[in-house]
């Protein structure tokens, strides 16, 4: 039997022992060798969530190759690496079943080649989705509490540097932010301000040239007034707001 190996890690899990792509592949290859499967190829999605399949390039490649019957079985390390969506799982399994392709996990007791295996898969997929939803609820609750405590809710923003759970003003970038506010008060035109910024050689944190949209984003960000935004709510931040005094800081 020709086997396709599918492995995935999310950004958070990349450094976790046992979840790494290399660890998953080693385990699956050993499983395939023990079962006498010939490995057709490896499909790996790096740093991508398992909540859906639409945004995973190698998952899409796997499905296209499945339609062409390039392999007989898909072997995964664990169901959570394949998908955490019950709807996606059922859709894929129905697709595989029509093609005569099985799905097998090397760490869990199911094999879609059997009726019992398909039943076990359904039960396990429900728990996998529940685990994802509970994790999401915990993350949202933790972020909301951070916001209530005045801690930062963003990872980066022009004009500030990360300072633990807070932000500190970046004097060099503060010049750009101040210039944008001052020029907008003068011209009242987003495109005109963006053009003036480009003429001065100003860029964003990653070197992108300003345009009307990015100027608008800066002008409407509550963070410069001392507030953090999370889930549509404003919270007083513990960082220094962009008052004229703050923007004139040189350190």
TrEMBL record:
Where in the numbering of this chain does the Resolvase/invertase-type recombinase catalytic domain appear? 2-150
Locate the coiled-coil region(s) and give their ranges. Answer: none
Residue ranges of the Recombinase domain?
157-251
Recorded hits in PROSITE patterns, A to Z, give:
RECOMBINASE_DNA_BIND, RECOMBINASES_1, RECOMBINASES_3
Q: CDD domains under this entry?
A: Ser_Recombinase
Q: Where are the transmembrane segments?
A: none
One GO BP on record is:
DNA integration
Per UniProt, the keywords (alphabetical) are: DNA integration, DNA recombination, DNA-binding
The record's listing under InterPro entries reads: DNA_bind_recomb_sf, DNA_bind_recombinase_dom, Recombinase_CS, Resolv_N, Resolvase-like_N_sf, SSR_resolvase
What name does the UniProt record give this protein?
Recombinase family protein
